[in-house]
Each structure stands twice: as structure tokens, then as C-alpha cells.
Amino acid sequence: MASKFPVVIKIGHAHSGLGKVKVDNINDFQDMASVVAVANTYCTVEPYIDSKYDIHVQKIGVNYKVFMRKSISGCWKTNTGSAMLEQITMLDRYKLWIDEVSDLFGGLDICALEVVVGKDGKEYVIEVNDSALTLLGDSQEEDRRHIADLVTSRMQAICRPRTPPPEEQIPPPVGPRGILGSLSSLTHSETPPPSASDNPSLSSVGRRESQTSQSSTVSSGRLPDPPPRPFQRQGSQQSNPPEDTEDTMKNLRKTFAGIFGDM
């Protein structure tokens, strides 16, 4: 256990060098453990790296920058106290690291990572940030403009209202009414209207029927029966015969008497 000291205890999610304590032995570690126990938050423990400087890699859209920060105040925290800041060349491995971080979290457009370079020359990635990154150097105003342009372009691409689709023509109903309507329209459009010669009127049919009945009566040799009088009951006709019927009967008697008397 003693061979692993010193260590760095980080309490909570503080940044900019806050909440970090360097512990050199087991006694100090136990004291810090008692403090964290009443802090109502979590803590992490990592090995201490005797650093020479640290590197800040940032990605804003398609713009990449790398800064080297070296403490000149003698503090073991390179981001605390007086420090010398310098923008350096973007190496391929730094670009690969930041792109992998972006892809790891679903394709971040804005992200950054912190790298500590030890006195032995080894590089250690100790922190990853999303859009809550810290802008460094004299190009902060340029970085803010890149962020604003990136956000604006994303909003125009994603938040722009879509044009409504053209109105589609509603097809006619397919129910029984629709089918009957379509059949009737086809019937009326394809079948020509009947002419007067094809469909005789009722009056002409009546005339033809009357002529046919008259001709059949004449050919049979008997007179047609007189039409019944409207609204006249049968009993009244038998009890009150008309006068012309009596005259006719008298004439027939005289005729038969004359014929049979001569014989």
C-alpha cells in the first residue's frame, strides 16, 4: 500500500484544480477518507504523475487546436497558479484521440481532452470534456464564433419547418352508393335516350287496342256491348230499363210476327 503513494484524490465533479488533494502516505489518506465520508458526494483516486506540462486538445466542428500549458509557479497542479500557455502543432495522434472521443459519445461536434506529459515523456489522458470545455489562448473570440456558426448551421438543418406535402386527390367512395353511382353514370352515358318511335305513347297504344277490338267485333257479326255507365248500380239498371230498350223490343215483336205470320 505504501509503495503506491503519492496519490491524487478528486472530490465530486469540481474542475479548474478545485477539489483535488495530493496524499503522500496512508495517514493522510485516512484523514481524507473521513472528510469525504461527511461530504455527501463521491470521490476518485488516481496515481500521482510528476508532470512536466499538460496538453489541451479541443474540437469545434472541423476546427482543431492544441495548447501546451506549463506551470511556472512550482505547483504540482499545472492548471493552477501562473502558467505559460502556447499553441502547438496538431499531431496525428492528438487528432485521432479527439475523434475517437467524439465517436465514443455519439459524434460530438464540440469536445476536448486533457493530457498530462510526465517527466519521463509519457502521455496520460486524464480528463474528457464535452461542450463545457474551457477556451484558452488569444483565439478565444475566434472559437466563440466557430461555436456560434456551428450551432446556427445545426439549427437551420434540424429545426427548419418542413414543407407540407401536396394535397392528394381523395378517391371516390367504394361503398354501395359509389358503385351504383358509377354504374348509373356509365348507363346514362353509353345508352342513347329512347326515341318517340321506339317507345309509343299510351294514347297510341290505346287507339291500337280500340281499333283491334272493333275489327274483331265486326268480323264476328255481333254488336259490341255498351260500356257501363259510371256510378250506376246494377239493381237500378234492372228495375228501371230505359225507354229506347222498350221501343226496340216492340219493333222486334212486330218483325217476328210479320215473318212467322207469312209462313
Automatic annotation (TrEMBL):
<feature type="compositionally biased region" description="Pro residues">
    <location>
        <begin position="162"/>
        <end position="175"/>
    </location>
</feature>
<keyword id="KW-0966">Cell projection</keyword>
<comment type="function">
    <text>Neuronal phosphoprotein that coats synaptic vesicles, and binds to the cytoskeleton. Acts as a regulator of synaptic vesicles trafficking, involved in the control of neurotransmitter release at the pre-synaptic terminal. Also involved in the regulation of axon outgrowth and synaptogenesis. The complex formed with NOS1 and CAPON proteins is necessary for specific nitric-oxid functions at a presynaptic level.</text>
</comment>
<dbReference type="InterPro" id="IPR001359">
    <property type="entry name" value="Synapsin"/>
</dbReference>
<keyword id="KW-0968">Cytoplasmic vesicle</keyword>
<keyword id="KW-0009">Actin-binding</keyword>
<protein>
    <recommendedName>
        <fullName>Synapsin-1</fullName>
    </recommendedName>
</protein>
<feature type="compositionally biased region" description="Polar residues">
    <location>
        <begin position="233"/>
        <end position="242"/>
    </location>
</feature>
<dbReference type="GO" id="GO:0098793">
    <property type="term" value="C:presynapse"/>
</dbReference>
<keyword id="KW-0597">Phosphoprotein</keyword>
<keyword id="KW-0677">Repeat</keyword>
<comment type="subunit">
    <text>Homodimer. Can form oligomers with SYN2. Interacts with CAPON. Forms a ternary complex with NOS1. Isoform Ib interacts with PRNP.</text>
</comment>
<dbReference type="GO" id="GO:0030133">
    <property type="term" value="C:transport vesicle"/>
</dbReference>
<feature type="compositionally biased region" description="Polar residues">
    <location>
        <begin position="182"/>
        <end position="204"/>
    </location>
</feature>
<keyword id="KW-0770">Synapse</keyword>
<comment type="similarity">
    <text>Belongs to the synapsin family.</text>
</comment>
<dbReference type="GO" id="GO:0005794">
    <property type="term" value="C:Golgi apparatus"/>
</dbReference>
<dbReference type="InterPro" id="IPR020898">
    <property type="entry name" value="Synapsin_ATP-bd_dom"/>
</dbReference>
<dbReference type="GO" id="GO:0003779">
    <property type="term" value="F:actin binding"/>
</dbReference>
<dbReference type="Pfam" id="PF02750">
    <property type="entry name" value="Synapsin_C"/>
</dbReference>
<feature type="region of interest" description="Disordered">
    <location>
        <begin position="156"/>
        <end position="263"/>
    </location>
</feature>
<keyword id="KW-0325">Glycoprotein</keyword>
<feature type="compositionally biased region" description="Low complexity">
    <location>
        <begin position="211"/>
        <end position="220"/>
    </location>
</feature>
<keyword id="KW-0333">Golgi apparatus</keyword>
<keyword id="KW-0488">Methylation</keyword>
<feature type="domain" description="Synapsin ATP-binding">
    <location>
        <begin position="3"/>
        <end position="156"/>
    </location>
</feature>
